[in-house]
Amino acid sequence: MTYYNTTGLIDEQLRSEWASVANQDQLILALYLRDNNGMTPFQVMNICNIYGRNWPITSIRRAINTLTKAGKLTKTRELRVGDYGKKCHVWRLNDQTT
Length: 98
Fold this sequence. Notes:
There is one protein chain. This protein is of the alpha+beta class. The protein has three helices and two strands; from the N terminus they run αααββ. It has helices at residues 11-34, 41-50, 57-69; strands at 73-81, 87-93. The chain has one domain: Winged helix-like DNA-binding domain superfamily/Winged helix DNA-binding domain (Arc Repressor Mutant, subunit A, Orthogonal Bundle), CATH 1.10.10. It has a two-stranded antiparallel ribbon. It is globular. 19% of the residues are buried.
């Protein structure tokens, strides 16, 4: 899992961010494992909000991107309307991720 240290954190702050990112990626992957009908980043964000994880959409997108690069998720051609009325791509579990 990847934390992009764009703010120059060091030592304990950086370790804390790395730990939270791994946890975030794992929780988002668990959502896809639970239901593989595919989800947009906004759908993931809304489910996370229900469970008290009020992560910004940029963090959700970062986690989805990281999971895609790791071969866990696949971006599809399917589009669904997101929170701002714009069409968003749907991601699904990669066939080997079960």
